[in-house]
Amino acid sequence: MSYEGEMLKKMRMPARKEVEEALLKTLIKHNGTIKEFATGEEIVDELADLFSLNEEQRSAVLERIYRKENRVVKTPLWHRLLYRAADSLARNKLVTRPTKTINLTNKREWMLTERGYDFGLRLLKIPSTQKDILPIKSFEVQKLVNKIKSSPKPEKYDPFENRMRKRTVTKTLNIRSRVFRQVVIESYDYRCSVCGLKINSPDNLYWEVEAAHIVPHSKKGKDDIWNGIALCRLHHWAFDVGWFSLTDDYKILLSTGYDKLPNDYGKIGNIDFFKNAITPNKPLLLPEIKSLKPDKASIQWHRKNIFYK
Ligand SMILES: [Zn+2]
Prior knowledge:
Elements: H1 3-10, H2 16-29, E1 33-35, H3 42-50, H4 55-59, E2 61-66, E3 71-76, H5 77-91, E4 95-96, H6 98-105, E5 109-112, H7 114-123, H8 139-150, H9 170-187, E6 210-213, E7 228-231, H10 233-240, E8 244-246, E9 252-254, H11 273-277, H12 296-305
Antiparallel strand pairs: 1-5, 2-3, 4-5, 6-7, 8-9
Helix pairs in contact: 2-5, 2-7, 8-9
The structure holds zinc ion.
Zinc ion is lined by residues 192, 194-195, 197, 231-232, 234-235.
């Protein structure tokens, strides 16, 4: 048995397979990415906590001699085990390595692949139908998100899907709707563009904000950033049914029907909740990257066809 193998046994460290599974689960809990394993990184301790490692196990080091330079190199045993497990996941194409992910995120981190995402969900017994709803990054989706974010806005934008185009296979469609969600929510910094609300679930898995289509899917509206807007659930609903729309310079346009609402309508306790939820002429909170603002063609269509004047 190798020196490293002996050390692992002597210190009663967890088996590599177990560490691999823990890594996949942790990746899902961290929205698809975790930092490279370095001393002092929280993630190293978080994973150690999962196995209830004691102080001795956490601080055990491997001493190796670099013959060339004739010096001793000390590596923490736990880091080494984490690295070996992640490396094995990378070889099985379940994660991408920090050297590859850095090109997408500018951070040295491990990221799930689509395959790894499926595996992780299965380990956590989360139904695969949740895949479209969870804000988990995968290398494949993130690559497309980055491509959209850095591509210039088309000069003549058409918010409708090409009606002639045949429906592609389900897998591509799923990826497309996830790319749409991710690019919209990320660009608006996870907040509602009307009220600014930014909240998620206690486990960090679910964001409240939604990626809304301006020209709806049912009307063959495109799944792209120029036909999208980030909205909280209340504003998403109110936008979809036409309580408000947007002006060409991205301000709130309020339906005249709003003033005619009965007095007992839209109240929470004594507060006029719904009536206070939409402020006319208020400017929208837009993405920092200017080219990602909704296209006027989408907005004009919404004003003409959905907005309740
Ligand atoms: Zn809102």
